[in-house]
Amino acid sequence: MTEGYFCYMILATATPADAARLTNLVNRAYRGDSSRRGWTTEAHLLDGQRIDEEGMQEMLAVPEAAMLLCLGENNALLGSFYAHALGQKVYLGMLAVDPQGQAQGVGKFLIRAAEDYGRQHGCTISKMTVISVRTELIAFYERQGYRLTGATEPFPTDPRYGIPKQPLTLLVLEKPLA
After folding, report:
1. pLDDT at 73 over 80
2. 53-60 and 19-30 are packed helices; what angle lies between their axes, rounded to 10 degrees?
3. Measured between alpha carbons, how far is 107 from 92 in angstroms, rounded to an integer?
4. Which of 4, 23, 50, 169 is the most buried (most CB within 10 A)?
5. What percent of the chain has pLDDT over 70?
6. Average pLDDT of every residue of the chain
7. CA-to-CA distance for 31 and 51, rounded, in angstroms?
8. Residue 46, exposed/middle/buried by CB under 10 A (0-12, 13-18, 19+)?
9. 83, β-bridge pairs
10. Domain boundaries in the chain?
11. For residues 82 and 59, is the Cβ–Cβ distance under 8 A?
């Protein structure tokens, strides 16, 4: 239980039955007018959706991966974070927090849970990618102990995940898991 704006936070793991509400949360957190209420919006960088329900179902079916959920009162979905154990590294992605509840500790709660997931799967390094122009988000992750590695990855070109309004590159961040 974590104190803050929310009375409590419960960690859960998503199942295929959660795909529709997860898809809705992720799209509200990243794209469109609703995302502009929070500080993690990508609406100024990308058009379209962040993910569709089919893509969410595919993520939920990946072996050695989990979509971690932060649930509040009445089973309200406050946030989610994807963790995929790949050998010595756990890849973390698509951190989504309800735009109306951002800056209340949900993201930090999910980061800790995802890192624990990696440790439980024998991972020694946590890895994530962030759009290079998202300086405020990079700074947030650096405050959580992540460091830029100097590596980059191309931004996905599949329109199912959004249509860039400008050329975008992903920066790789890592953190040792003790």
Report:
1. yes
2. 120
3. 12
4. 50
5. 91
6. 90
7. 10
8. buried
9. 66, 92
10. 10-176
11. yes
Read off the amino acid at residue 151: A
State how beta strands 89-97 and 125-131 pair. parallel
Nearest to 9 by CA among 101, 109, 83, 81: 109
Judged by phi (left if over 0) then psi (alpha if -120 to 50, else beta), residue 69 lies in: beta
3-state SS class at 128: strand
Tokens standing for residue 118: 């990696």
Amino acid, res. 27? N
User: 69 pairs with which residues across the strands?
Assistant: 12, 80
- Yes or no: say if 66 and 117 are a contact pair by the CB < 8 Å rule: yes
CA distance 176 to 169: 23
**pLDDT tens for residues 135-160?**
999 999 999 999 999 999 999 888 88
Domain at 10-176, CATH class: alpha beta
